[in-house]
Design goal:
The protein has 20 helices and 13 strands. It is an alpha/beta fold and 483 residues long. The termini are far apart. The chain is elongated, with a radius of gyration of 30 Å. Helix 2 runs antiparallel to helix 3 and helix 18 packs across helix 19.
């Protein structure tokens, strides 16, 4: 009787499976979905046909000739250098993912073909120091080969998964004392593609895109048409208010700012969105030590120059300060970006935007009642205010929360420049103590209040509210700045 082997490569069925694929350049691995990988060879981000062809040749050699991971890593480095490919992730990690995934999927596709001669299939969990409990729970499961379970749970079931399937005859099931299981229920969960916002139904315990049996399909023309019809990644990305951000802090990103801004009132959100579309103001988040003019900022000069599209010689001047300890952020009329200081442990995901807005309302309500810890003005007309909106936000909610109000403050300066740098309206009262410094800080603090606490500001100073609304509309249409 024929038996299904599970030995070392070469393995003819695995080689045949891989060689029937067509090369399909893709921006991301998930652009080729589930069974499409049966007929498509893709490397996420490898858009050049010659790069993809070389990559395929190396994978083919690894599968057909049993080449090691060490060999593939050396080939990968040579290909990256030769084609000038700016890939994501470290080279060793990326090579390991490409090698391991293609080797396992090709081998398991060959296994799928071999196992057709067996009436029953048995799931065997791969050895792992840290097993995936959902995979481990399937260990020893015996089901007929026609079971729907195998169309979903046939290995590989995720990145790095080493689970296997063995064939059993009716006789071997009886001889080994195995029990044929009842048909398992397969639970599904929503998986949201964080890049595009697209939602897929994914089985619990299986990594997205792995819930299929490798080798069970053969639809080359259909898959090529599906991939060609899929819009480019840029067209599938959700529209963002903040188009980009350069950040040296893991928890502080453009997406994080966007998520918080989405909780603004509709008029403010629309006005902000219109301005950002027209100007595409960029953002730099750096730590205080990186704001100082020294080795750390020098190390960031090249990537920030690339992000801003400026000469590297000038880049360091565009995100550093002589007094980094005294500033929370800054910008300049000649720039098309703002700089905000953050800390290594800051995280925008921890920020409750509704509470930020409540604190901003408190600043305005206290100003309306002439209450606050800082006193200025005259003896006959003393004014009592909070120092800044950001100062009270940080005091009440922590340093991470300050980032959003500081971001709005600095953006307010850019709005002010584009609006022609008008004077503060005659008769309008200052929002904070810092707002009384000059017309630039007056506008930036008022702009922050208009964004975060529009109702409180409108109730206290309706003329100031209208002034700010008019200025951002003017700024959005403007083609030049004034200081």
């Amino acid at each position: 009787m024929a038996t299904a082997e599970y030995g070392s490569l070469p393995f003819d069925a695995a080689i045949a499976y891989f060689r029937k694929k067509v090369n399909l350049p893709s921006e991301r691995w998930t652009d080729i979905w589930r069974q499409q990988h049966d007929v498509a060879f893709t490397v996420a981000g490898a858009m050049k046909t010659d790069l993809l062809a070389d990559m395929r040749g190396a994978v083919d050699a690894a599968i057909a000739n049993g080449k090691s991971l060490t060999w593939f890593k050396s080939q990968f480095k040579d290909m990256v250098k030769r084609h000038g490919w700016d890939h994501t992730g470290e080279a060793a990690w990326r090579a390991n993912v490409i090698y391991g995934t293609n080797m396992r999927q090709s081998y398991n596709a060959g296994r799928y073909e071999q196992l057709q001669q067996f009436d029953f299939w048995r799931y065997k969990h791969g050895d792992s120091q840290y097993p995936r409990l959902n995979h481990l729970s399937k260990d020893g499961l015996v089901l007929p080969k026609a079971s729907p379970f195998w169309q979903v749970w046939f290995p590989t079931n995720g990145w790095g998964c080493k689970c296997k399937v063995f064939g059993e005859t009716t006789a071997s099931v009886k001889r080994k004392g195995l029990t044929v299981s009842a048909e398992p229920a397969i639970e599904y969960r929503d998986w949201v593609d964080k890049k595009t916002g697209e939602v897929q139904q994914v089985p619990v315990g299986i990594d997205p895109g792995f819930d299929y049996a490798p080798g069970s399909t053969s639809q080359v023309a259909k898959v090529k048409a599906q991939v060609a019809a899929k819009p480019k990644l840029a067209e599938r990305l959700p529209e963002r208010i903040v188009p980009s951000a350069f950040s040296t802090i893991k928890g502080v990103t453009a997406e994080g700012i966007d998520g918080l801004l989405g909780k603004l009132d509709a008029p403010q959100l629309t006005a902000l969105n219109d301005f950002m579309k027209a100007k595409a103001t960029k953002t730099i988040f750096v730590k205080q030590t990186e704001m100082s003019r020294g080795k750390k900022s020098a190390a960031l000069a090249a990537p920030i120059a690339e992000y801003l599209g400026v000469d590297e010689f000038y880049a360091q001047m565009k995100f550093t300060s002589r007094s980094p300890a005294r500033v929370g952020g800054f910008t300049s009329m000649s720039w098309e970006h703002i700089v905000v200081k953050a800390k290594a442990n800051d995280s925008l995901s921890k920020v409750d935007m509704l509470k930020v807005r409540e604190v901003a309302s408190e600043v305005i309500q206290d100003a309306a009642g002439n209450k606050g810890p800082h006193i200025f003005g005259t003896a006959d007309n003393p004014l009592k205010r909070h120092w800044t909106v950001s100062e009270l936000v940080e005091k009440r909610l922590g340093e991470s929360a300050r980032l959003i109000s500081t971001w709005l403050h600095e953006l307010g300066h850019q709005v002010h420049y584009y609006a022609g740098a008008p004077d503060y309206p005659a008769g309008a009262s200052w929002v904070t103590y810092y707002a009384a410094t000059n017309k630039y800080e007056s506008f930036a603090e008022a702009f922050t209040a208009w964004m975060l606490a529009p109702e409180a500001l409108k109730q206290w100073q309706p003329e100031l509210y209208d002034h700010l609304e008019q200025q951002i509309q003017k700024a959005t249409k403007a083609r030049s700045k004034t200081r």
